[in-house]
Design goal:
CATH superfamily of the largest domain in chain B: P-loop containing nucleotide triphosphate hydrolases
Number of helices of chain B: 12
CATH architecture of the largest domain in chain B: 3-Layer(aba) Sandwich
Order of helices and strands of chain B: EHEEHEHEHHHHEHEHEEHEEEHEH
Distance between the termini of chain B: 38 Å
Strand content of chain B: 25-35%
Helix content of chain B: 25-40%
Number of strands of chain C: 0
Structural class of chain B: alpha/beta
CATH class of the largest domain in chain B: Alpha Beta
Shape of chain B: globular
Distance between the termini of chain C: 34 Å
Number of domains of chain B: 2
Radius of gyration of chain B: 24 Å
Largest sheet of chain B: 6 strands, mixed
Largest sheet of chain C: none
Chains: A mainly alpha, B alpha/beta, C mainly alpha
Oligomer: heterotrimer
CATH topology of the largest domain in chain B: Rossmann fold
Number of strands of chain B: 13
Strand order of the largest sheet of chain B: 5-6-7-3-8-9
Number of domains of chain C: 1
Helix content of chain C: over 70%
Chain lengths: 265, 343, 260
């Protein structure tokens, strides 16, 4: 089985390498929004000292970490798979004796991440030089704990993303749905505004949703802003949502494949 | 250059197209495969000169239909592009209706059309009729002119049933008719047609040919068309220009070419009781070009004989064999052309 | 005027294409409203926590959002669909047909495709600008006129920049993805550029001058620009169009294999 993954890695890496020009463009998109929000909030924080407990440096560290977590958690399944479902090329993959999404698509995602990280890490370091964050609150244990948190976040994001992509079995408007899902992430994950700064109502709703595990949780964990108890609770929640996402994905996938084979490629 | 005042095609007998010493050389970057080459080419590109058209000269009179023949890569499309103003030549002079094509003056563009069989100008998702309306706006046709021309094209091409369907729902033949119509809405005086019948079935091809003949007759438009199908050329034009490896090989009538290249005839002999016999003593065996043979499909006994020996061989056949029927025909154009290019 | 007739003809064609995909249009409008909601919401969060942003008040930021959406509508309705169409037409050779037509090729390439429902976005943008002006109680007719004129000039700059970007394809066929830079940096147009660190400010003012289309018109509205400044910006707009058309012409010559 490991062999299969290794092979898939090789082919997917080669494929992603071909599209490296697109990569540069993707890089730009990734970069601009967080920097914009960073600038806005630090301006406000600098003007009045702090915003609800966030100093300018707090914002800088938050957004710089956001850049990284965003990339590590990102899921591009919809761009990889939706068209294959729509034009029928998925049938080729269904014939293979391995699960196409849990193998090929997953590895494709990872290859994309690896490639983008290669370029992004130097850019990120440059940004650190430009913004001079003070990462004083980050301790090694927290950083290490952050790793499983991020993996958890990716798992949830990937499975939900895959489930949504599977909606392509039923509708052509799957990109619209994906955009809506992204909007939810932006709202409830602390994507562009730290969750703490959102109105209380939003924060309450967010507690019942999986999205904060994607961004807010790992960032706050690494920055050392969570107590041990909070960390534990969030991990448990994360595992819960992971299982939910897995179940949902399996359901949608099975139904989808049934429909796909019934309708014919 | 003489012109009618009402903007009709120049009077017949006047040159519509004049080409002088036309040359086009492409400067093509060249690279072999492999990683090392890829890196090297990043620093210093190597170029290759590809001569597409070499010292081509010809004149086409107003109202003529000329067939432009040549194998793939011979330079036909390049020449057409230079005539329609899409390409600048490397050297030489071209005059179409008195204009230099690559200056792309609007009056020039309104007087010509280029229809490429392999590329569509129509919008896929909307009916052809709507693309036509767009065309009207771009070419500044008045409503009367437009309606009149459209009606004529409709009569000739039978567009009414297909005009209102989205283009992607049309068959290839139907689409080609609409492409042609779109190219002719502004009543151009010179038509450049690049493989207009490619991919069409026999009936569709025939219909397009009839249309072009009729269009030429009615409007006196000058037509220059390239094609792979000999039938296009033989049906439409007496005059062909042959181009091979960028050079003009022949410019004249088809019959002259046949006579020059292949002064031989093909004799089809039908024997009593449908016998098949070895006729090698009389002449060389011949193959019908594409499996079809004049009006007698599948002639079983075919020989080819030099023209000056036809009478003699025929006499011998009639005397020595139980001949039921005998046909003497010119060799198929394809073999003539092939031989011409082989020289 | 013929340009108007052409515009109308292409508009009509694109409307028909849009009607063929009606539900897509409805979905798009809904998503658009959703994002507008988020944008206004994030503005409200900012102003829950402060009274001014770099000296700009909420009304002004709403007007800025309107201008940003205006530029974004231009990108989404004209620039993106026509970039795609242009790149395809270069690749498959149908660009030749554009050249064969007796009309300005730069114009044809710009209006071939239009995302028609984005007209709705223009209305929204107009509404936002009007609301913002009302809330901020800024201003007299003069500033308003200056604002409109500067906004138009800014749009012209963005348009000209786009023309230059796609014209680059004539020389470098593989870099047909470069318009993405425009869209990515446009995000920085949401907020007044004074907010950004110097290096970002420099980029969005001089390299990819998003600021000319967003912050500058708002400065006009706030009455911060002298007449001299305004004239300079207008001249920049006109000059950019001139440069763009020259680059386009050079690109066409290259496409046609002209050695000169």
């Amino acid at each position: 089985m490991l062999n299969i993954y290794r092979r898939l890695w090789q082919t997917n890496w080669a494929e992603q390498w071909q599209y490296r020009a697109n990569l540069l463009m993707y890089l730009l998109y990734w970069l601009v929004s967080p920097v914009v929000y960073l600038a806005v909030w630090t301006t406000v924080a600098n003007a009045q000292g702090s915003v609800q407990g966030y100093t300018a440096n707090d914002f800088v560290t938050y957004y710089l970490l956001l850049l990284m977590v965003d990339q590590l958690n990102a899921d591009i399944t919809i761009h990889l798979l939706a068209y294959k479902i729509q034009d029928g090329t998925l049938s080729g993959e269904l014939l293979k004796p391995i699960h196409p999404i849990l193998t090929n698509t997953l590895v494709n995602n990872l290859a994309f991440k690896a490639l983008t990280l290669m370029v992004m890490i130097p850019v990120w370091l440059l940004l650190c030089l430009l913004f001079r964050p003070d990462f004083g609150t980050v301790t090694l244990p927290n950083l290490l704990l952050g790793i499983p948190a991020i993996i958890l976040g990716f798992g949830i994001n990937f499975l939900f993303g895959a489930a949504i992509t599977c909606l392509a079995f039923w509708t052509t408007r799957v990109y619209a749905i994906s955009e809506f899902y992204y909007a939810l992430t932006v709202l409830f994950a602390g994507q562009f505004v730290p969750l703490d700064l959102m109105p209380p109502l939003v924060q309450q709703i967010a507690a019942y949703l999986p999205f904060q595990i994607l961004r807010f949780f790992p960032i706050q964990l690494i920055l050392g802003r969570l107590t041990g108890g909070e960390i534990l609770v969030n991990f448990l929640l994360g595992v819960f949502w992971l299982l939910v996402a897995l179940g949902l994905f399996q359901l949608v996938w099975k139904q989808g494949v049934k429909r796909f084979s019934a309708v014919g490629a | 250059m003489q012109w009618n005042e009402n903007g009709d095609s120049p009077a017949p007998g006047v040159d519509a197209i004049r080409v002088q010493d036309l040359c086009k050389t492409y400067h093509v970057p060249e690279r072999e495969g492999g990683m090392g080459e890829a890196v090297r080419s990043f620093f210093r590109r190597r170029y290759r000169d590809v001569v597409a058209v070499q010292k081509v000269n010809f004149c086409i009179r107003s109202g003529e239909i000329v067939g432009f023949l040549g194998p793939n890569g011979a330079g036909k499309t390049t020449t057409l592009k230079m005539l329609s103003g899409l390409l600048h030549p490397t050297s030489g002079k071209v005059e179409v209706l008195g204009f230099t094509p690559w200056e792309r003056k609007n009056e020039f563009l309104r007087a010509i059309t280029l229809v490429m069989g392999q590329r569509s100008r129509l919008s896929w998702d909307i009916p052809a009729a709507d693309s036509f309306l767009l065309h009207q706006a771009i070419y500044r046709l008045s409503d009367e002119e437009y309606k009149q021309t459209l009606k004529e094209l409709d009569d000739l091409l039978d567009l009414s049933p297909i005009m209102r369907k989205p283009v992607r729902n049309l068959s290839l033949g139907e689409r080609m008719k609409c492409e042609l119509a779109a190219g002719l809405l502004h009543r151009p005086k010179v038509l450049f047609l690049d493989e207009p019948t490619i991919g069409l079935d026999i009936t569709a091809q025939a219909r397009i040919r009839t249309f072009l003949q009729e269009y030429n007759r009615r409007t006196g438009a000058t037509i220059l068309l390239t094609s792979h199908y000999m039938a296009d050329v033989t049906a439409l034009s007496e005059r062909i220009i042959m181009i091979h490896q960028g050079e003009l090989k022949y410019d004249g009538s088809i019959t002259d070419l046949s006579r020059r290249i292949a002064p031989y005839k093909i004799i089809c002999v039908t024997l009593e009781d449908g016998q098949v016999m070895d006729l090698s003593r009389y002449g060389d065996p011949a193959q019908p070009a594409n499996g079809e043979w004049g009006e007698n499909g599948g002639c079983k006994n075919l020989i080819q004989v030099t023209a000056n020996r036809v009478a003699e061989v025929t006499a011998r056949l009639l005397a020595e064999l139980p001949v039921q029927d005998l046909n003497i025909e010119d060799p198929p154009i394809e073999s003539v052309i092939e031989r011409a290019f082989a020289e | 005027m013929n340009v108007l007739k052409l515009l109308y003809a292409y508009l009509r064609m694109n409307v028909q294409m849009a009607l063929a995909y009606r539900t897509d249009t409805a979905v798009n409008i809904l998503l658009n409203l959703m994002w507008l909601g988020w944008e206004l919401f994030s503005l409200s969060i900012i102003f829950n926590n402060t009274d001014t942003l770099a000296g700009w008040g909420p009304g002004e930021l709403i007007a800025l959002l309107g201008v940003f959406r205006l530029v974004n509508a231009l990108m989404a309705s004209l620039i993106w669909p026509n970039t795609e169409r242009f790149n395809t037409s270069i690749r498959d050779g149908s660009f030749d047909y554009v050249l064969l037509q007796p009309a300005n090729s730069m114009l044809l390439v710009s209006i071939n495709r239009m995302v028609v429902w984005r007209i709705w976005d223009l209305v929204l943008a107009g509404g936002l600008i009007a609301a913002g002006v009302r809330i901020s109680q800024t201003t007299g007719v003069e500033s308003l006129a200056g604002f409109l004129v500067l906004a138009a000039s800014g749009l012209v700059v963005i348009y000209s920049l786009w023309i230059v970007m796609i014209a680059l394809t004539f020389w470098f066929i593989k870099f047909d993805n470069n318009v993405t830079i425009l869209q990515a940096l446009l995000e920085a147009g949401r907020y007044p550029v004074m907010v950004y660190p110097a290096w970002l400010r420099l980029i969005v003012t001089f390299v990819i001058p998003i600021a000319l289309a967003t912050t500058v018109p708002l400065q006009g509205l706030r009455g911060e620009l002298t007449t001299g400044n305004t004239l300079v910006f207008l001249a920049a707009g006109a000059l950019s169009l001139l440069i763009a058309s020259q680059v386009w012409r050079a690109g066409l010559k290259r496409y046609a294999g002209a050695s000169s």
